[in-house]
Structure formats: C-alpha cells, structure tokens
Amino acid sequence: MADSTTHHGALMDGIYRRQRLIYDVTRKYYLLGRDHLIDQMHPEPGAHILEIACGTGRNLDLIGRRYPGRVLYGVDISSEMLINAHNKLGARASFAQGDACAFDPETLFGQARFDHIVMSYSLSMIPDWQAAIAEALRHLEPGGTLHIVDFGDQARLPRWFKAGLRNWLARFHVTPRDGLADVICAQTGVEVTFLPLYRGYAQYARVTKSPA
Predict the structure, then answer these.
(1) Which of 14, 16, 65, 118 has a CA-to-CA distance to 170 between 20 and 30 Å?
(2) Each residue of 110-155: pLDDT tens digit?
(3) How many CB atoms neighbour CB 90 within 10 A?
(4) How many angstroms separate the first and last alpha carbons of the chain?
(5) Chain centroid to CA 108: how far?
(6) InterPro entries this protein is in (predicted)?
(7) If we measure between CA atoms, which residue out of 144, 131, 79, 122 comes closest to residue 103?
(8) Domains of the chain: which residue ranges?
(9) What secondary structure letter does DSSP report for 125?
(10) What CA–CA distance (Å, rounded) separates 72 from 192?
(11) Contacts of 153 (CB under 8 A, 6+ apart)
C-alpha cells in the first residue's frame, strides 16, 4: 500500500505541479455538477465537513461562503494541490496530505468522523475507487452524508462526444466510473439518491449513513 500510495502521489504532483496554477480557471468549463452538489448539502450549523481529494480548495471555499459557521477539512494526496488550498482558504480550513483509500483523520485533524464528506471529480482519478468510497463511509458520522459528483456514462450524449471525451480524459489518467451507482447501492446501512446530470455527462450521488 505504501509503495502504491507514494507512486500515485508522485504522479499527481507531476500532473499538477504546473496545472495547479490554472486549474480553477480551466476546470470550470467541464467539471460540471460541483455547484449542484454544494447546493444540495444543507449542513447544520457547526457541522464538520471533509472533502477527500480537495485539490485547490475550490469547493471548500464555496462551501464555507455558502454555509458559514461550519468546520472545514481537506485531505489530498498531492502536496502541490495543497499549496493552492492553503493559499485560498488560510485558517478557514484545516488541510493534510493523505491517501483517499487509507487515512486517519483523527491523527491528521483530531476529528474521527464527519457530518458531511465530499468527493468531487476524484473517484475517476483514484485507481482503487471502490476502496475510497468504503473509506469515506467509514469516517462518516451515523446519519451523516457522503456527497459525490464525477463524470457519468454519457449515455444520452452522441457517441462521438463520449469517445472523444474519454480519449481526452485518459491523457490525464482520468477514467469515468460507469459502475458507480451499482457500487454505492451495494453498500449496507445507507440510503442512496443517485442522479445523472447533463444527459449523463456527470453523475451525482447522495449517500446517507443510517443513524446509530
């Protein structure tokens, strides 16, 4: 696990060492559905919110502005992306480097579980994405909610568009997870809302953990 984590972290740092400087400007045109996820959160005052693979901190920044008075955390495997996140949010959030598939938030943040966990366009870049979902649910409070948005199956879009998009995404080590809905619905002790967005370009899932 340590070797694969180190390799993936180095890969992400290599990709984002320069891209992080233009990431937020360029990604707004094709990472669709992120604002939909934020609109659907409705966290209670004082809620603890973690974003796994938080990248530049773009989502946490908007979450903090939309829902003031919440406690924000971000974890990412890329030290390069965390530079941007720290610069963007400063003391408004706590950040740490960690692997989405295996991390200890109590050691990193002094907080074992969270009321809301966000995974935005991250599963399509995590090799063992099923393990990342299980890890997120493990760190969720009973009654808490995991929010996911990512590339969909593009089922209602032209075939040429789907083929072109996926070939382009593969250049950046991105693979849409067509089996996401099945994997989430197979989890025990959760209530799932799943919604394709923009004719299947993206997919959104809201996974609420059963109360204790």
Answers:
(1) 118
(2) 999 999 999 999 999 999 999 999 999 999 999 999 999 999 999 9
(3) 9
(4) 31
(5) 18
(6) Methyltransf_25 (IPR041698), SAM-dependent_MTases_sf (IPR029063)
(7) 131
(8) 2-209
(9) G
(10) 24
(11) 176, 178, 196, 200, 203
The pairs formed by 19-23 with CB atoms below 8 angstroms and a separation of 24 or more are 20/56, 20/80, 20/81, 20/83, 20/84, 23/55, 23/56, 23/58, 23/81, 23/84
The identity of residue 20, as a single letter, is R
| Structure tokens given for 155 | 């089922």
Class in CATH terms, 2-209: alpha beta
DSSP state of 210: P
Integer angstrom CA distances of residue 58 from 1, 26, 63, 156, 157: 29, 12, 9, 29, 28
Cα→Cα distances 136→88, 101, 131, 157, Å: 24, 8, 9, 31
**pTM for the predicted model, two decimal places:** 0.89
Which tokens go with 183? 């994997």
Residue-wise pLDDT tens digits, 59-79: 999 999 999 999 999 999 988
Tens-place pLDDT, residues 23-52: 555 566 578 999 999 999 999 999 999 999
How far is Cα 120 from Cα 36, in angstroms, rounded to an integer? 11
